Amino acid sequence: MKHLFRHWRTSGAVIGSLLKKGSIAVLALLVVFLAGRIYESQRGPALHRWHTWSGNEMSAEEIDQATFAQYLAREKTIFADLQREVTEALPEEDKTPVNRFYRHSRVWPGQFKQDWNRSFVLMPLGKPRGSVVLLHGLTDSPYSVRYLAQLWQQRGYVAVVPRLPGHGTAPGR
Quick one: which of 19, 72, 149, 163 has the fewest CB in 10 Å? Predict the structure, then answer.
């Protein structure tokens, strides 16, 4: 019986040693991989203006104290700043048919009847039965819940869709 326990102790030490060495190897591979990704990210082309531009969004404290009208006014200012500082400042090589920051692009939001990248409220035709607030996802803006807002509107609800700070403007922030 003593021989059996001695064997298990020896096997446990071997397994522990292998686990330790394996963990160190995995950690070393992870460090090498991350170092390689950092190196690769620095070798890429320079960022465009829309990658580094940031609007003057309300802080959480300001949002807590603001009315929806004040929030919309700030949003209007942010999009005017985006127009002036990014759209109107585009170099010629960035003025392409698929650049959403180019004024004559097929996808420039300003050419549409309504810019669904901004906050909006849809009112029902009759007396409202209630209201819903729809929030878009992390990488989206209000356009992504437009269909849902229209469904609620058709059912008699006021649909409020705020643009969350930093969304729908520039992809870098």
Answer: 19
Give the residue among 42, 23, 22 at the shortest CA–CA distance from 34: 42
Q: Where are the domains of the chain?
A: 114-167
CA dist., res. 69 & res. 116, Å (int): 17
Written as six digits, the tokens of 143 are: 């356009």
Question: CA distances (Å), 108 to each of 83, 92, 161, in order?
Answer: 11, 16, 21
Encoded amino acid at 17, one letter: S
**Using one digit for the tens of pLDDT, what is the confidence trace for 114-143?**
888 899 999 999 999 999 999 998 878 888
DSSP string, 100-151: TTSTTSTT-GGGSSS-TTS-EEE--SSS--EEEE----TT--GGGGHHHHHH
Phi, psi of 48, deg, nearest 5: -80, 165
Q: How many residues are there in the chain?
A: 173
pTM: 0.70
Element (H, E) at 158: strand 157-161
Non-local CB neighbours of 45 within 8 Å, separated by 6+ positions = none
Beta strands in 13-60 (DSSP E): none
Q: What is the amino acid identity at position 57?
A: E
